Amino acid sequence: MLCQTVKKDKECLFWSAGGCAQETGKCHIVDEKCEGCARVEEWPTGKYCATYAHPENQWDLGVCNMATHIKAEAAAEARFVNPLKASKRAGGRR
Ligand code: SF4
């Protein structure tokens, strides 16, 4: 159905006869780290992500997995490395 809040008349899976199914009842504006991403959409109500309703949450564990403005190497560096698995991997090469 069509959104009737911040992205008025945009087709949205979260909108139903009962309103927006998001916890806060509408999408959140993009995080400052989203600047430069091709998924940022400008609406009269502000800038919103075309993919995620809560863009700030996508940066909690490092780099947003859908960001178009971050190079793959940077995203790989930011990825969490499990020290136990890394130790086992290193041990197997002896
Ligand atoms: S895809 Fe990620 S980086 Fe891009 S606007 Fe959405 S939350 Fe921000």
Please outline the helices and strands.
Blueprint: E1 15-16, E2 19-20, E3 40-43, E4 46-49, H1 72-78, H2 83-92
Antiparallel strand pairs: 1-2, 3-4
Bound molecules: iron/sulfur cluster.
Structure description:
- A hairpin with a 2-residue loop joins β3 (40-43) and β4 (46-49).
- The strands form 2 sheets. A two-stranded antiparallel ribbon has the order 1-2.
- It has 2 helices and 4 strands.
- The chain has one domain.
- By secondary structure, the protein is an alpha+beta fold.
- The longest helix is centred in the last third of the chain and has 10 residues, at 83-92.
- It is elongated.
- It binds iron/sulfur cluster (SF4).
- Iron/sulfur cluster binds next to loops.
Please identify the structural class as seen in this structure.
alpha+beta
Question: Would you report the number of β strands?
Answer: 4
- Output the strand order for the largest sheet: 1-2
Largest sheet: 2 strands, antiparallel
> Would you list the SSEs in sequence order as H and E?
EEEEHH
Provide the number of structural domains: 1
| Rg from Cα | 18 Å
Q: What's this model, at a glance?
A:
This protein is of the alpha+beta class. The protein has helices at 72-78, 83-92; strands spanning 15-16, 19-20, 40-43, 46-49.
Question: Which features characterize this protein?
Answer:
single chain; 94 residues; alpha+beta; two-stranded antiparallel sheet; 4 strands; 13% strand; binds iron/sulfur cluster
